[in-house]
Amino acid sequence: MNILLINHYAGSTEMGMEFRPYYFAREWIKMGHRVTIVSGDYSHLRVKNPEVKKDFQKEVIDGIQYCWVKTGRYEGNGVKRAGTMFRFVYKLWVNAERIANSIKPDVVITSSTYPLDTFVGQRIAKLTGARLIHEVHDMWPATLIELGGMKKYNPFVILMQLGENSAYRKSDYIVSILPCAKEYMVKHGMKAEKFVNIQNGIVLNEWEKQEKIPEKHQKILNRLKEDGNFIVGYFGGHALSNALDLLLDTAKGISIPGIKFVLVGNGVEKPQLIRRVQDERIENVIFLDPVGKASIGDLIRHFDCSYIGGLKSPLYRFGISPNKMYDAMMAGRPVICAIDAPKCPVETFECGTVIRSGKASEIQKVIEQLYSVSKDERNEMGRRGKEAVLKYYNYTTLAEQFEKLFAG
């Protein structure tokens, strides 16, 4: 089959986030399909953006045909970013016949963060008789209203709502990364039988060839272990949304000297967090530089448990699917998930603990309980998490689930 995947921010392993379209495309190619990804030339999520001289410039990456559209650069979430969205969708709309005739897709997948690409997808699917699948990563416009503080009757929000409603009504299937979004989608026009939950996961061959963490990291972590410490590890962005101040509150309240907190990564909040540790003399917290994606497995294996946190948000009612959760599970370490979200795999597969209170005292209690149990018990939790990822949350399995929707 010819698969056309439209995702404004799609990347690759070399370019960086987001990886999901690339991973699915690579698996579908292994299955014998042909995949074209249409994406914008700039994304704030990428480490490296492609050099694009003209619209619909083509590039083959690992057998995937990328087709780049010039949208322009932006910073933050202001007017300039909105302009790139309209530019991307407009250029695809006016070139819909050209795209339909050159690719002749059997399946069209609209997968940008925002839902406006559904209008282009609907047009191309109508021209070619293709099956139309809309994939939901983030709940737009609910995110704009509930997190961004935008008003319900803001013209931009209204437009996004029209796109979302249209996608739910007119797509053959709705693939949601979030497990508990079905009821909301039905209220906005989707037939219940169209809903399919396909979450994020890991890539098996990337875990088969994991690289070692930098020598500096090894020395620090090995010394902590040699001194008999229990390491609570966090890896990823140091952003407000990750609730790392809550983790520092937890560290401050821990009375057991053998428990250490290691925060690995970077982000806008890191300088403030470091200052807080220094000012408040929180002596059981260590900050380390970020490591490459290929070293994540080796990093987590130095931890005794892995922490994931988030600020209180009504959006978590739809569930969560963070990549770092599956990484932690795959590395065979218990996961402490301090996010108030239903149907969390950590809870489902009993490979750690979900804390919904948002209280440092509750996180502290869980960490101290983990510290007190035997290593065998912690290893058993880690084993359950790894087995779940190998069975359900790897991209080979996920791509097979997705492929079943292509033919109906």
CATH topology of the largest domain: Rossmann fold
> Total helix count?
17
Q: Please, how many domains?
A: 2
**SS class:** alpha/beta
Strand content of the residues, in percent? 15-25%
Tally of DSSP β-strands: 14
Radius of gyration: 22 Å
What fraction, in percent, of the residue positions are helical?
40-55%
Largest β-sheet summary: 8 strands, mixed
CATH class descriptor name of the largest domain: Alpha Beta
Low-pLDDT sequence parts: none
Oligomer: single chain
- Going by CATH, the architecture of the largest domain would be 3-Layer(aba) Sandwich
What separation lies between the terminal Cα atoms?
13 Å
**If you average the pLDDT, what whole number results?**
96
Mind telling me the CATH superfamily name of the largest domain? Glycogen Phosphorylase B
Query: Which of globular, elongated, flat, extended, rod-shaped describes the shape?
Result: globular
Q: Biggest sheet, strands in spatial order?
A: 3-4-2-1-5-6-7-8
Give a written overview of the molecule.
Helices cover 41% and strands 17% of the residues. The chain has helices at 20-30, 79-94, 96-103, 117-128, 142-146, 155-170, 182-187, 204-208, 215-226, 244-253, 270-279, 296-300, 323-330, 345-348, 360-372, 375-392, 395-403, and strands at residues 2-6, 34-40, 57-61, 64-69, 107-110, 131-136, 173-176, 195-197, 230-235, 259-264, 285-288, 305-309, 335-338, 352-354. The chain is α/β, with parallel strands linked by helices and 408 residues long. It has two domains: 2-200 and 394-403, Glycogen Phosphorylase B (Rossmann fold), CATH 3.40.50; 205-392, Rossmann fold, CATH 3.40.50. The strands form two sheets. The chain has an eight-stranded mixed sheet, sandwiched between helices. It has a six-stranded parallel sheet with strand order 11-10-9-12-13-14, with helices on both faces. The model has no long low-confidence stretch (mean pLDDT 96). The longest helix has 18 residues, at 375-392. Strand 12 (305-309), helix 13 and strand 13 (335-338) form a beta-alpha-beta unit. It contains 17 helices and 14 strands.
